[in-house]
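Memo to structure team: turn this sequence into structure tokens by end of day. - J.P.
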Amino acid sequence: MNSIEVPRHALASGEAPILGRWRLAHRLVPCLSGVSTGHPKLPGENRPIGTSDVWLMSEERCWARTLSRWYRLGRPAGQSGDHL
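Reply from structure team:
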């Protein structure tokens, strides 16, 4: 893989939902589970969700690309504090 164009504007502007208390999960393919805020199709704050297939995740684990959308990643599961 040579390069991936990460949509910095979507991640910075709040277009991408935040997934807090996230963790890598597995169905038949890797996915994420966590609590979502700002999701365009699953409204509400801190709503428990499972994502579609994970395709990419930044080395810093601050964003992820799933089959259907980009996510800004908040704190991983198991860390204290709120969803960010």
